[in-house]
Amino acid sequence: MRIHIATDHAGLEFSTQLLHHLTEAGHDVVDHGPVEYDPLDDYPAFCIRAADAVVRDQAAGVAALGVVFGGSGNGEQIAANKVQGIRAALVWNLATAELAREHNDANVIAIGARQHTFEEAVSFIDRFIETPFSHDERHVRRIRQIAAYEAHGTLAPDPRAH
């Protein structure tokens, strides 16, 4: 599996360790930066590049996922979700990592590098990568609704409307 990673200065050390861990696990890892510590760096470009690469790979038939992280993971998730076709989920435990894939077919996860030990974060990432999408009809339907809004700004009819 190809794994695209990106971070900000808060996750740089984590990024280096993660690259090693994922490569040892047999994944093709692409690091979208940063490459050196800069406490004033701007994470959006790094995370958007990683998310965009996930979309391009998936469109080309390459099995790919993304992992973005920073101090909290919130900004990184927001940035990744600006890329059309990305479903980035903020993950903080094994259950959210699993459900992100199983129910939401998330293709990127965001993690707060300052919120977890490296070992905890790696367990979330490994669980995310190994968990398949369930393909349950209700989840497929909901993902289609999100994609329709993303592409066309259309929503399913509101059942409460008269």
Explained architecture:
The chain has 162 residues and is an alpha/beta fold. It has a single domain (2-134), classed as Ribose 5-phosphate Isomerase B, Chain: A. The chain has six helices and five strands; from the N terminus they run βαβαβαβαβαα. Strands 2-1-3-5-4 form a five-stranded parallel β-sheet, with helices on both faces. Helix 4 (94-102) runs parallel beside helix 5 (118-130). The protein is globular, with a radius of gyration of 16 Å.
Low-confidence stretches: none
Beta-strand content: 5-15%
Shape: globular
How far is the N terminus from the C terminus? 48 Å
**Total beta strand runs:** 5
Reading the helices and strands in chain order gives EHEHEHEHEHH
Helix/sheet category: alpha/beta
Instruction: Give the % helix.
Output: 40-55%
CATH architecture: 3-Layer(aba) Sandwich
Indicate the CATH class: Alpha Beta
Task: Give the gist of this structure.
The protein is an alpha/beta fold and 162 residues long. It is built from 6 helices and 5 strands.
Mind sketching the topology for me?
Blueprint: E1 2-6, H1 12-24, E2 28-31, H2 43-59, E3 64-70, H3 74-80, E4 88-90, H4 94-102, E5 108-112, H5 118-130, H6 137-152
Parallel strand pairs: 1-2, 1-3, 3-5, 4-5
Helix pairs in contact: 2-3, 4-5
List the keywords.
single chain, 162 residues, alpha/beta, Ribose 5-phosphate Isomerase B, Chain: A, 6 helices, globular
